[in-house]
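One-letter codes give the sequence; the integers encode the fold. A sample entry reads:
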Amino acid sequence: MNRRPARGWDGLRATAGAAYVLCLAIFLLLPALAIFPASIGESEFLEFPPSGLTLHWFQDVLADQDWLDSAAFSFGLALATAVLATFLAVLVGIAQLRYHRLPKGLLAVLLAPLWVPHVAVATGLFSLCLSWGWVGRAWVLVLANTMLALPLSVSLVLAAFSVFEGNLWTAAAVLGARPRTIVRTILLPLSATALLSSLVLAFQSAWDETVLALFIGPVDTPPLSVRIYAYVSQNLTPAVAAVAAMVAVLSIVTVTVLGLARKAPGRRS
């Protein structure tokens, strides 16, 4: 007698939960999806819905060397950040696997950038770099973005390394494997999914970062996010929507790659 109402209530809660998630997704994605029709409008100003359709804004952006230089700089910056952050995270994971625990306070220091506002970090870095003459140096921006992306990479790598057998390193060493061989042939293949996820998330973190680039980034060829910010402050044409649409496509591809990477172990098994 009491089971049917309970099942009906569970079904109602599941439907309400699904409707809530759908509405939330629409609310979050609608502004991002609106840039696509806005980027192909014929008007000289941003409008939604567009009065006419054209692709010449994409042609203008792709023919503008300034936009291309900023995109290339952002890509190199994000790629360097992803590789460096993942490399450092692997070193932390090896230390945890080799010594079974990390020094006290080290994990808190590594995760500290998650708790500190980016504008506070950027302000402090600007003061230091200004006194040392490092403002506008690309390598400084790479290190700063690596600091912000490192908590994401460390969390993923530590989670992957935590499932390894504690004596894995010792067993491989007893069989004659050198540390470099253990890392290359055992640890990296077993944690490939986590490493790929770390690369993707660190890349996306540096690609989207604007605050640090505004404070300590180069001026002649700024990152793409900074150029978009500067362009919007002076112009409001569909060209910026075209750039935003291409960046959104890159983000969608990134999320897709990350999702496929997480499903890969299940398919192999």
The two ends are 43 Å apart (CA to CA). The chain has a mean pLDDT of 81. The chain is about 75% helix and 0% strand. Residues 4 and 106 are 53 Å apart (CA to CA).
